[in-house]
Write a structure and sequence with these properties.
Blueprint lengths: L6 H30 L9 H13 L7 H8 L2 E9 L4 E11 L1 H25 L6 H18 L2 E11 L7 E3 L2 H7 L3 H10 L2 E4 L2 E4 L4 H10 L15 H18 L4 H39 L3 H15 L3 H13 L6 H26 L3 H9 L4 H31 L11 H12 L3 H33 L1
Antiparallel strand pairs: 1-2, 2-3, 3-4, 5-6
Amino acid sequence: MKKPFSQKKKRLIINLCLVGLCVLLIAGVVAVDAIANRKGDLELTREDAQAYIEKTLAELPTAGAECSKYTVEHTDIEVVSIESGAAREFIAHVKYTTPDVGGMYEAHKNDLFVSVKEYANKREEAGQKVNATGIQIHVESYVLSLLEAQPKTSGEVDVYFYDTRESEPVMYLSDEALDALLGGYVTVKDDVKSTMSFTMNGEVVSIEYDNTFRNGINQCFGLKNYDAEIPDTASPLQQKLNDLGDEFYRNFIEDNRWLYLVEGLGNTLAITALALLLGIVLGVVSALIRIVHDKTDKLYYLDKLVGLYISAIRGTPVMVQLLIIYFVLLLPIGIEKFPAAVLCFGLNSGAYVSEIIRGGIMSIDQGQTEAGRSLGFGFWPTMWHIVIPQAFKVVLPSLCNEFITLLKETSVAFYIGVADLTRGGIKIRSQTYSNFMPLLAVAIIYFVLVLGLTKLVGILERRLRKSER
Protein backbone atom coordinates (compact mmCIF):
# COMPACT_ATOMS: atom_id res chain seq x y z
CA MET A 1 0.00 0.00 0.00
CA LYS A 2 1.12 3.49 -0.81
CA LYS A 3 1.56 5.77 2.12
CA PRO A 4 -0.71 8.84 2.05
CA PHE A 5 0.91 12.22 1.65
CA SER A 6 1.62 14.02 4.89
CA GLN A 7 0.33 17.54 5.50
CA LYS A 8 3.83 18.96 5.03
CA LYS A 9 4.21 17.30 1.62
CA LYS A 10 0.78 18.51 0.55
CA ARG A 11 1.64 22.07 1.54
CA LEU A 12 4.99 21.80 -0.27
CA ILE A 13 3.31 20.59 -3.48
CA ILE A 14 0.70 23.34 -3.30
CA ASN A 15 3.39 26.00 -2.75
CA LEU A 16 5.45 24.70 -5.68
CA CYS A 17 2.37 24.77 -7.90
CA LEU A 18 1.66 28.36 -6.88
CA VAL A 19 5.26 29.39 -7.56
CA GLY A 20 5.14 27.69 -10.96
CA LEU A 21 1.87 29.43 -11.79
CA CYS A 22 3.35 32.81 -10.86
CA VAL A 23 6.42 32.15 -13.02
CA LEU A 24 4.24 31.20 -15.98
CA LEU A 25 2.09 34.30 -15.47
CA ILE A 26 5.13 36.60 -15.36
CA ALA A 27 6.63 34.92 -18.43
CA GLY A 28 3.35 35.36 -20.28
CA VAL A 29 3.17 39.05 -19.42
CA VAL A 30 6.78 39.59 -20.53
CA ALA A 31 6.14 37.74 -23.79
CA VAL A 32 3.01 39.73 -24.58
CA ASP A 33 4.88 42.94 -23.76
CA ALA A 34 7.77 41.97 -26.05
CA ILE A 35 5.35 41.22 -28.89
CA ALA A 36 3.64 44.58 -28.36
CA ASN A 37 7.02 46.34 -28.44
CA ARG A 38 8.03 45.00 -31.83
CA LYS A 39 8.67 47.70 -34.36
CA GLY A 40 5.58 48.04 -36.49
CA ASP A 41 5.04 48.78 -40.14
CA LEU A 42 4.48 52.51 -39.52
CA GLU A 43 6.25 54.65 -42.11
CA LEU A 44 6.84 58.36 -42.59
CA THR A 45 7.23 59.95 -46.00
CA ARG A 46 8.85 63.29 -46.75
CA GLU A 47 5.48 64.70 -47.81
CA ASP A 48 3.82 63.60 -44.56
CA ALA A 49 6.66 65.01 -42.46
CA GLN A 50 6.45 68.34 -44.29
CA ALA A 51 2.69 68.49 -43.75
CA TYR A 52 3.03 67.70 -40.03
CA ILE A 53 5.67 70.38 -39.49
CA GLU A 54 3.79 73.07 -41.42
CA LYS A 55 0.56 72.26 -39.60
CA THR A 56 2.25 72.37 -36.20
CA LEU A 57 3.96 75.70 -36.92
CA ALA A 58 0.70 77.23 -38.18
CA GLU A 59 -1.03 76.34 -34.90
CA LEU A 60 1.66 77.79 -32.64
CA PRO A 61 0.91 81.57 -32.58
CA THR A 62 -1.44 82.70 -29.82
CA ALA A 63 -4.45 84.85 -30.64
CA GLY A 64 -3.43 88.44 -31.32
CA ALA A 65 0.32 87.75 -31.44
CA GLU A 66 1.01 89.41 -34.80
CA CYS A 67 4.78 88.98 -34.58
CA SER A 68 4.36 85.24 -34.16
CA LYS A 69 1.94 85.07 -37.07
CA TYR A 70 4.27 87.08 -39.30
CA THR A 71 7.24 84.84 -38.45
CA VAL A 72 5.33 81.61 -39.10
CA GLU A 73 3.76 82.89 -42.31
CA HIS A 74 7.16 83.89 -43.69
CA THR A 75 8.93 80.67 -42.71
CA ASP A 76 9.62 78.21 -45.51
CA ILE A 77 10.63 74.65 -44.82
CA GLU A 78 11.67 71.72 -46.96
CA VAL A 79 12.07 68.16 -45.69
CA VAL A 80 15.16 66.91 -47.45
CA SER A 81 15.21 63.32 -46.26
CA ILE A 82 13.86 60.87 -43.67
CA GLU A 83 15.84 58.24 -41.82
CA SER A 84 14.95 55.75 -39.10
CA GLY A 85 16.62 56.13 -35.72
CA ALA A 86 17.89 53.46 -33.37
CA ALA A 87 14.70 53.63 -31.32
CA ARG A 88 11.12 53.83 -32.52
CA GLU A 89 11.77 57.16 -34.24
CA PHE A 90 12.10 58.93 -37.56
CA ILE A 91 14.53 61.79 -38.13
CA ALA A 92 13.45 64.43 -40.65
CA HIS A 93 16.31 66.55 -42.01
CA VAL A 94 14.77 69.95 -42.69
CA LYS A 95 16.03 73.01 -44.56
CA TYR A 96 14.44 76.28 -43.49
CA THR A 97 14.37 79.97 -44.35
CA THR A 98 12.82 82.25 -41.73
CA PRO A 99 12.82 85.85 -40.48
CA ASP A 100 15.90 86.48 -38.33
CA VAL A 101 14.03 87.31 -35.13
CA GLY A 102 17.11 86.78 -32.96
CA GLY A 103 19.28 89.02 -35.13
CA MET A 104 16.63 91.75 -35.15
CA TYR A 105 16.29 91.56 -31.36
CA GLU A 106 20.04 91.68 -30.70
CA ALA A 107 20.47 94.71 -32.97
CA HIS A 108 17.55 96.69 -31.56
CA LYS A 109 17.02 95.29 -28.04
CA ASN A 110 17.83 98.44 -26.09
CA ASP A 111 15.94 100.65 -28.55
CA LEU A 112 12.93 98.36 -28.19
CA PHE A 113 12.93 98.68 -24.39
CA VAL A 114 13.43 102.43 -24.58
CA SER A 115 10.49 102.68 -26.99
CA VAL A 116 8.27 100.79 -24.55
CA LYS A 117 9.37 102.99 -21.64
CA GLU A 118 8.66 106.16 -23.61
CA TYR A 119 5.23 104.80 -24.52
CA ALA A 120 4.53 104.00 -20.86
CA ASN A 121 5.67 107.47 -19.73
CA LYS A 122 3.37 109.17 -22.23
CA ARG A 123 0.41 107.11 -21.03
CA GLU A 124 1.13 107.94 -17.40
CA GLU A 125 1.56 111.66 -18.14
CA ALA A 126 -1.84 111.62 -19.85
CA GLY A 127 -3.35 109.90 -16.79
CA GLN A 128 -3.99 106.71 -18.71
CA LYS A 129 -3.40 103.19 -17.43
CA VAL A 130 -0.48 101.15 -18.73
CA ASN A 131 -1.24 97.47 -19.27
CA ALA A 132 0.41 94.52 -20.99
CA THR A 133 -2.04 94.55 -23.92
CA GLY A 134 -1.30 98.20 -24.69
CA ILE A 135 2.43 97.50 -24.59
CA GLN A 136 1.93 94.50 -26.89
CA ILE A 137 0.10 96.57 -29.50
CA HIS A 138 2.80 99.27 -29.36
CA VAL A 139 5.68 96.75 -29.63
CA GLU A 140 4.11 94.80 -32.49
CA SER A 141 4.02 97.76 -34.84
CA TYR A 142 7.62 98.57 -33.87
CA VAL A 143 8.90 94.99 -34.26
CA LEU A 144 7.02 94.19 -37.49
CA SER A 145 8.66 97.11 -39.28
CA LEU A 146 12.08 95.88 -38.12
CA LEU A 147 11.34 92.29 -39.19
CA GLU A 148 10.28 93.39 -42.65
CA ALA A 149 13.61 95.14 -43.11
CA GLN A 150 15.65 92.35 -41.50
CA PRO A 151 17.32 89.82 -43.84
CA LYS A 152 16.13 86.26 -43.44
CA THR A 153 18.22 83.48 -41.97
CA SER A 154 18.46 79.90 -43.21
CA GLY A 155 19.91 76.58 -42.12
CA GLU A 156 19.19 72.94 -41.44
CA VAL A 157 17.70 71.24 -38.39
CA ASP A 158 16.55 67.75 -37.45
CA VAL A 159 12.94 67.22 -36.40
CA TYR A 160 12.07 63.95 -34.69
CA PHE A 161 8.94 61.84 -35.08
CA TYR A 162 8.20 58.93 -32.74
CA ASP A 163 6.27 55.73 -33.22
CA THR A 164 4.07 55.53 -30.12
CA ARG A 165 1.83 52.82 -31.58
CA GLU A 166 -0.70 55.40 -32.71
CA SER A 167 -2.10 55.47 -36.23
CA GLU A 168 0.50 58.07 -37.22
CA PRO A 169 3.89 59.22 -35.89
CA VAL A 170 4.00 61.82 -33.12
CA MET A 171 6.10 64.87 -33.89
CA TYR A 172 8.44 66.12 -31.16
CA LEU A 173 9.23 69.81 -31.45
CA SER A 174 12.11 70.54 -29.08
CA ASP A 175 13.08 74.04 -27.96
CA GLU A 176 16.21 73.82 -30.10
CA ALA A 177 14.28 72.84 -33.24
CA LEU A 178 11.62 75.49 -32.68
CA ASP A 179 14.28 78.13 -32.02
CA ALA A 180 15.97 77.27 -35.35
CA LEU A 181 12.77 77.08 -37.44
CA LEU A 182 11.52 80.45 -36.12
CA GLY A 183 14.78 82.36 -36.31
CA GLY A 184 15.72 82.43 -32.60
CA TYR A 185 12.21 82.87 -31.26
CA VAL A 186 12.68 80.86 -28.05
CA THR A 187 15.96 82.62 -27.27
CA VAL A 188 14.26 86.03 -27.61
CA LYS A 189 11.38 85.03 -25.30
CA ASP A 190 13.80 83.73 -22.66
CA ASP A 191 15.93 86.86 -22.86
CA VAL A 192 12.93 89.17 -22.44
CA LYS A 193 11.93 87.25 -19.30
CA SER A 194 15.42 87.46 -17.81
CA THR A 195 16.14 91.12 -18.65
CA MET A 196 15.95 93.26 -15.49
CA SER A 197 17.31 96.60 -16.75
CA PHE A 198 18.25 98.65 -19.83
CA THR A 199 19.92 101.95 -20.62
CA MET A 200 17.88 105.07 -21.39
CA ASN A 201 19.45 108.50 -21.89
CA GLY A 202 22.68 107.29 -20.31
CA GLU A 203 20.95 105.99 -17.17
CA VAL A 204 20.14 102.45 -16.10
CA VAL A 205 16.40 101.81 -15.82
CA SER A 206 15.36 98.85 -13.66
CA ILE A 207 12.35 96.74 -14.67
CA GLU A 208 13.04 93.95 -12.17
CA TYR A 209 9.61 94.30 -10.57
CA ASP A 210 7.76 95.57 -13.64
CA ASN A 211 6.14 92.36 -14.84
CA THR A 212 3.66 94.31 -16.98
CA PHE A 213 6.61 95.72 -18.98
CA ARG A 214 8.14 92.31 -19.76
CA ASN A 215 4.81 90.52 -20.23
CA GLY A 216 3.67 93.07 -22.79
CA ILE A 217 6.78 92.48 -24.89
CA ASN A 218 6.58 88.71 -24.50
CA GLN A 219 2.98 88.64 -25.68
CA CYS A 220 4.19 89.86 -29.07
CA PHE A 221 6.08 86.59 -29.36
CA GLY A 222 3.27 84.51 -27.91
CA LEU A 223 3.20 80.79 -28.69
CA LYS A 224 0.69 78.22 -27.58
CA ASN A 225 1.90 75.58 -25.19
CA TYR A 226 3.66 72.82 -27.02
CA ASP A 227 4.84 69.57 -25.49
CA ALA A 228 8.59 69.75 -25.00
CA GLU A 229 8.79 66.18 -23.64
CA ILE A 230 9.99 63.37 -25.86
CA PRO A 231 7.07 60.99 -26.56
CA ASP A 232 7.26 57.69 -24.71
CA THR A 233 8.03 54.84 -27.09
CA ALA A 234 8.61 52.22 -24.40
CA SER A 235 6.63 48.99 -24.31
CA PRO A 236 3.21 49.07 -22.61
CA LEU A 237 4.56 47.33 -19.51
CA GLN A 238 7.60 49.58 -19.36
CA GLN A 239 5.38 52.66 -19.76
CA LYS A 240 3.32 51.58 -16.76
CA LEU A 241 6.47 50.97 -14.75
CA ASN A 242 7.89 54.35 -15.82
CA ASP A 243 4.65 56.07 -14.81
CA LEU A 244 4.71 54.34 -11.43
CA GLY A 245 8.35 55.32 -10.96
CA ASP A 246 7.61 58.94 -11.83
CA GLU A 247 4.62 58.94 -9.46
CA PHE A 248 6.71 57.42 -6.68
CA TYR A 249 9.46 60.01 -7.13
CA ARG A 250 7.03 62.92 -7.29
CA ASN A 251 5.06 61.84 -4.22
CA PHE A 252 7.83 60.63 -1.91
CA ILE A 253 11.37 61.46 -3.05
CA GLU A 254 10.85 64.97 -4.40
CA ASP A 255 11.19 67.57 -1.59
CA ASN A 256 11.60 64.64 0.87
CA ARG A 257 7.84 64.21 1.16
CA TRP A 258 8.36 60.72 2.63
CA LEU A 259 9.21 62.49 5.89
CA TYR A 260 5.50 63.35 6.28
CA LEU A 261 4.76 59.62 6.48
CA VAL A 262 7.63 58.97 8.91
CA GLU A 263 6.51 61.77 11.20
CA GLY A 264 2.89 60.65 10.94
CA LEU A 265 3.80 57.03 11.69
CA GLY A 266 5.67 58.10 14.82
CA ASN A 267 2.69 60.12 16.06
CA THR A 268 0.27 57.28 15.25
CA LEU A 269 2.32 54.75 17.23
CA ALA A 270 2.74 57.20 20.12
CA ILE A 271 -1.00 57.91 20.29
CA THR A 272 -1.78 54.18 20.10
CA ALA A 273 0.69 53.22 22.84
CA LEU A 274 -0.36 55.99 25.26
CA ALA A 275 -4.06 55.42 24.58
CA LEU A 276 -3.60 51.69 25.15
CA LEU A 277 -1.95 52.28 28.53
CA LEU A 278 -4.74 54.65 29.53
CA GLY A 279 -7.33 52.22 28.21
CA ILE A 280 -5.88 49.30 30.20
CA VAL A 281 -5.87 51.32 33.44
CA LEU A 282 -9.45 52.53 32.90
CA GLY A 283 -10.56 49.08 31.73
CA VAL A 284 -9.09 47.24 34.72
CA VAL A 285 -10.56 49.72 37.23
CA SER A 286 -13.97 49.70 35.52
CA ALA A 287 -14.02 45.90 35.26
CA LEU A 288 -13.12 45.44 38.94
CA ILE A 289 -15.80 47.88 40.03
CA ARG A 290 -18.46 45.99 38.08
CA ILE A 291 -17.20 42.58 39.27
CA VAL A 292 -17.15 43.67 42.90
CA HIS A 293 -20.69 44.94 42.53
CA ASP A 294 -21.83 41.71 40.85
CA LYS A 295 -20.27 39.47 43.52
CA THR A 296 -20.76 41.57 46.68
CA ASP A 297 -23.51 44.10 45.84
CA LYS A 298 -21.13 46.87 46.94
CA LEU A 299 -20.05 50.02 45.00
CA TYR A 300 -23.59 50.54 43.65
CA TYR A 301 -23.16 54.15 42.51
CA LEU A 302 -19.71 53.55 41.04
CA ASP A 303 -21.13 50.57 39.14
CA LYS A 304 -23.90 52.72 37.66
CA LEU A 305 -21.38 55.43 36.71
CA VAL A 306 -19.11 52.87 35.02
CA GLY A 307 -22.09 51.32 33.23
CA LEU A 308 -23.09 54.78 31.92
CA TYR A 309 -19.50 55.42 30.74
CA ILE A 310 -19.30 52.09 28.91
CA SER A 311 -22.72 52.50 27.29
CA ALA A 312 -21.95 56.06 26.14
CA ILE A 313 -18.60 55.09 24.63
CA ARG A 314 -19.82 51.92 22.94
CA GLY A 315 -22.97 53.61 21.66
CA THR A 316 -21.32 56.54 19.82
CA PRO A 317 -18.80 56.64 16.92
CA VAL A 318 -15.19 57.27 17.88
CA MET A 319 -14.93 60.22 15.47
CA VAL A 320 -17.87 61.99 17.15
CA GLN A 321 -16.22 61.35 20.53
CA LEU A 322 -12.97 62.85 19.22
CA LEU A 323 -14.68 65.99 17.92
CA ILE A 324 -16.63 66.52 21.15
CA ILE A 325 -13.64 65.92 23.43
CA TYR A 326 -11.38 68.30 21.49
CA PHE A 327 -13.60 71.08 20.15
CA VAL A 328 -16.19 71.16 22.96
CA LEU A 329 -14.27 70.17 26.10
CA LEU A 330 -10.52 70.69 25.66
CA LEU A 331 -9.97 73.38 23.04
CA PRO A 332 -11.68 76.12 25.12
CA ILE A 333 -9.23 75.48 27.99
CA GLY A 334 -6.19 75.38 25.70
CA ILE A 335 -5.41 71.65 25.57
CA GLU A 336 -3.38 70.68 22.50
CA LYS A 337 -4.49 68.24 19.80
CA PHE A 338 -2.13 65.37 20.66
CA PRO A 339 -3.22 65.02 24.34
CA ALA A 340 -6.83 65.32 23.23
CA ALA A 341 -6.38 62.43 20.80
CA VAL A 342 -4.69 60.28 23.46
CA LEU A 343 -7.50 61.01 25.95
CA CYS A 344 -10.23 60.24 23.42
CA PHE A 345 -8.78 56.95 22.22
CA GLY A 346 -7.84 55.99 25.77
CA LEU A 347 -11.42 56.52 26.98
CA ASN A 348 -12.75 54.65 23.97
CA SER A 349 -10.37 51.73 24.45
CA GLY A 350 -11.02 51.63 28.21
CA ALA A 351 -14.70 50.85 27.68
CA TYR A 352 -13.93 47.85 25.48
CA VAL A 353 -11.03 46.65 27.63
CA SER A 354 -13.35 46.79 30.65
CA GLU A 355 -15.83 44.43 29.03
CA ILE A 356 -13.06 42.12 27.81
CA ILE A 357 -11.56 41.80 31.29
CA ARG A 358 -14.92 41.50 33.00
CA GLY A 359 -16.00 38.81 30.54
CA GLY A 360 -12.73 36.92 31.06
CA ILE A 361 -13.01 36.97 34.85
CA MET A 362 -16.69 36.06 34.81
CA SER A 363 -15.90 33.13 32.50
CA ILE A 364 -13.84 31.45 35.25
CA ASP A 365 -15.89 28.79 36.95
CA GLN A 366 -17.46 29.87 40.25
CA GLY A 367 -15.98 26.76 41.81
CA GLN A 368 -12.51 28.31 41.55
CA THR A 369 -13.61 31.17 43.76
CA GLU A 370 -15.30 28.85 46.21
CA ALA A 371 -12.17 26.67 46.35
CA GLY A 372 -10.07 29.68 47.21
CA ARG A 373 -12.47 30.77 49.90
CA SER A 374 -12.50 27.26 51.35
CA LEU A 375 -8.71 27.46 51.64
CA GLY A 376 -9.08 30.57 53.79
CA PHE A 377 -8.42 33.26 51.18
CA GLY A 378 -10.43 36.45 51.30
CA PHE A 379 -12.14 38.01 48.26
CA TRP A 380 -9.15 39.97 46.95
CA PRO A 381 -6.50 37.25 47.60
CA THR A 382 -8.75 34.75 45.81
CA MET A 383 -9.08 37.08 42.82
CA TRP A 384 -5.36 37.84 42.72
CA HIS A 385 -3.93 34.36 43.19
CA ILE A 386 -6.55 32.12 41.57
CA VAL A 387 -9.07 33.87 39.31
CA ILE A 388 -7.01 36.60 37.57
CA PRO A 389 -4.12 34.31 36.46
CA GLN A 390 -6.64 32.03 34.74
CA ALA A 391 -8.60 34.93 33.28
CA PHE A 392 -5.38 36.48 31.94
CA LYS A 393 -4.92 33.60 29.48
CA VAL A 394 -8.50 34.00 28.33
CA VAL A 395 -8.45 37.76 27.77
CA LEU A 396 -4.89 38.26 26.43
CA PRO A 397 -5.67 37.46 22.75
CA SER A 398 -8.74 39.73 22.91
CA LEU A 399 -6.66 42.52 24.44
CA CYS A 400 -4.13 42.16 21.61
CA ASN A 401 -6.94 42.38 19.07
CA GLU A 402 -8.19 45.51 20.83
CA PHE A 403 -4.69 46.97 20.39
CA ILE A 404 -4.88 46.25 16.65
CA THR A 405 -8.33 47.85 16.44
CA LEU A 406 -7.10 50.87 18.38
CA LEU A 407 -4.18 51.30 15.99
CA LYS A 408 -6.58 51.51 13.02
CA GLU A 409 -9.04 53.78 14.84
CA THR A 410 -6.34 56.42 15.40
CA SER A 411 -6.52 57.16 11.66
CA VAL A 412 -9.39 59.60 12.36
CA ALA A 413 -7.11 61.79 14.51
CA PHE A 414 -6.36 63.94 11.45
CA TYR A 415 -9.89 65.39 11.74
CA ILE A 416 -8.66 67.58 14.61
CA GLY A 417 -5.36 68.37 12.89
CA VAL A 418 -3.07 65.77 14.49
CA ALA A 419 -0.13 65.02 12.19
CA ASP A 420 -0.74 61.28 12.18
CA LEU A 421 -0.03 58.78 9.39
CA THR A 422 -3.27 59.49 7.54
CA ARG A 423 -2.68 63.24 7.65
CA GLY A 424 0.84 62.69 6.30
CA GLY A 425 -0.64 60.95 3.25
CA ILE A 426 -3.25 63.68 2.81
CA LYS A 427 -0.56 66.38 3.02
CA ILE A 428 1.40 64.70 0.22
CA ARG A 429 -1.82 64.39 -1.77
CA SER A 430 -2.55 68.10 -1.36
CA GLN A 431 0.88 69.01 -2.76
CA THR A 432 1.06 66.57 -5.66
CA TYR A 433 -2.68 66.33 -6.50
CA SER A 434 -2.16 62.57 -6.68
CA ASN A 435 -4.67 60.31 -4.94
CA PHE A 436 -3.41 56.84 -5.72
CA MET A 437 0.19 56.75 -4.47
CA PRO A 438 -0.05 58.63 -1.10
CA LEU A 439 -3.23 56.90 0.04
CA LEU A 440 -1.94 53.52 -1.10
CA ALA A 441 1.25 54.11 0.90
CA VAL A 442 -0.80 54.90 4.02
CA ALA A 443 -2.90 51.77 3.51
CA ILE A 444 0.19 49.58 3.01
CA ILE A 445 1.85 50.91 6.17
CA TYR A 446 -1.28 50.21 8.22
CA PHE A 447 -1.58 46.78 6.60
CA VAL A 448 2.03 45.85 7.42
CA LEU A 449 1.63 47.01 11.04
CA VAL A 450 -1.62 45.11 11.48
CA LEU A 451 -0.21 42.03 9.72
CA GLY A 452 2.80 42.00 12.04
CA LEU A 453 0.67 42.44 15.15
CA THR A 454 -1.75 39.75 13.98
CA LYS A 455 1.18 37.37 13.51
CA LEU A 456 2.38 38.08 17.05
CA VAL A 457 -1.11 37.51 18.45
CA GLY A 458 -1.28 34.18 16.60
CA ILE A 459 2.06 33.09 18.10
CA LEU A 460 0.87 34.13 21.54
CA GLU A 461 -2.38 32.18 21.19
CA ARG A 462 -0.51 29.02 20.14
CA ARG A 463 1.82 29.25 23.13
CA LEU A 464 -1.14 29.73 25.47
CA ARG A 465 -2.81 26.64 24.01
CA LYS A 466 0.40 24.62 24.53
CA SER A 467 0.65 25.80 28.13
CA GLU A 468 -2.94 24.70 28.72
CA ARG A 469 -2.09 21.18 27.47
